[in-house]
Amino acid sequence: MRRINGTALIFAALVATLGALAFPIWSYADRSGTGQANLNAGSVATQWGPLSATDRDFLVKVRLAGLWEIPAGQQAMERAPTQAIRMAGDHLVVGHTDLDKRVRSVAGRLGVELPNQPNPQQQGWLDQLTAASGKDYENKFANLLRDSHGKVFALIAQVRHTTRNTLVRELATDANQTVLDHITMLENTGDVDFDAIANEAAGSATASPTGPPPPGGVLPPAPNPAVPSGSPYVTSQPSAEPTDDPGRSINTDRPDPDEIP
Questions:
Q1: Proportion of the chain above pLDDT 90, given as a percent
Q2: What b/e sequence results for 182-191 when a residue is b if at least 16 CB atoms lie within 10 Å of its CB, and e otherwise?
């Protein structure tokens, strides 16, 4: 009986060892539950490249942005007490009317259903603006819209970086220009609370910041300029406007989406 028990124990140990050796191979081959598997499961094939769940979410968010920011911009043009707020409203109306044409065109070709009403949170923002007046209205307008644009800006960057779909990539490029223009115009009002934005972002951050130590009261040595070696012949111009230009804005003069084949 002792010999049988000993043999059984040896056999069990061998099975456990083989199982442990096989586990890494099995776990590597079966990628279910990983980011790659989720990407593949959420993607569908189109003639313009795979369309992921993130791509579709991006299309919906672009559409939703227009559904509340166009009326917000129109309201600002009609009742804002300052020219800076009215100009920001003008940019919102023009930019999102154009971007809405583009997202409806792209979604139609890709077969993605879009909403026709702003979501409850966005409707709440519109209600706040409608109920406000004077300086309170200016502050709410600048900060509600600047905060929402800043958050969608991060999604645009992610989509522009990762999408495998040509139409979505083109829309992300257009949205990037439009949103940056709106961010700039909202900041030009002088009413944006950058401390509140930074504190909100810090509250949701999970990683410790990295970078050089804080200044100690003594100016560090001036860094050497980053320039090409020699004198290469170049023909392009910097995409950024000169930093000393007042009222910086982004050029959003793009072809009408109805004229794009």
A1: 59
A2: bbbbbbbbeb
